[in-house]
Amino acid sequence: MSWQAYVDSHLIATGQVAEAAIIGLQGGVWATSKNFTLSTEEQKAIVDGFTNPDQIQASGVRLAGQKYFTLSVVGRTIQAKKAADGAVIVKTKQAILVAVYRAPVQAPEATPIVEKLADYLITAGY
Fold first, then answer.
1. Which residues belong to the signal peptide in this entry (predicted)?
2. C-alpha to C-alpha distance for 13 and 40, rounded to whole angstroms
3. What burial class does residue 108 get, using C-beta atoms within 10 Å of its C-beta: 0-12 exposed, 13-18 middle, 19+ buried?
4. From CA 3, how far away is CA 83, in angstroms rounded?
5. H/E run at residue 20
6. Parent domain of 29
7. pLDDT tens string 49-103
8. How far is Cα 80 from Cα 7, in angstroms, rounded to an integer?
């Protein structure tokens, strides 16, 4: 399956995720939903957020030019919020899944979808 199919079929198609991307831990966007562009600086900040959680908690995270406040960094998952919308960012062995949800969807609806895909990718070696 292509990386784009994971974004389209496993995240966007659920109706719980509005925008999504898969980025590599070593850099680069592997797949993204339409009109969701993560700059090189945004990608780096996301990757660095897992090695330096204090920084991302203090400054928040930017996704496609929009600033989100970091609510938590726990293990492999970063939770962020922007007004009624939010983001779930989950790290696998080689990649990071970035998913944005829009109200009325809330974190308890979107998070399990992103984490389930992350679990699958981890078992597949990614």
1. none
2. 26
3. exposed
4. 30
5. strand 19-24
6. 3-123
7. 999 999 999 999 999 999 999 999 999 999 999 999 999 999 999 999 999 999 9
8. 19
β partners of residue 96? 23, 91
Q: What angle do CA 100, 125, 88 make, to 5 degrees?
A: 15
Structural domains of the chain, count: 1
The CATH number given to whatever domain includes residue 101 is 3.30.450.30
DSSP 35: T
- Cα dist. 103→78, 89, 91, 123 in Å? 18, 17, 24, 31
Listed in order, strand segments (DSSP E) in the chain are: 19-24, 29-32, 61-63, 66-74, 77-82, 85-91, 95-101
Q: What is the pLDDT of residues 10-60, one digit of tens each?
A: 999 999 999 999 999 998 999 999 999 999 999 999 999 999 999 999 999
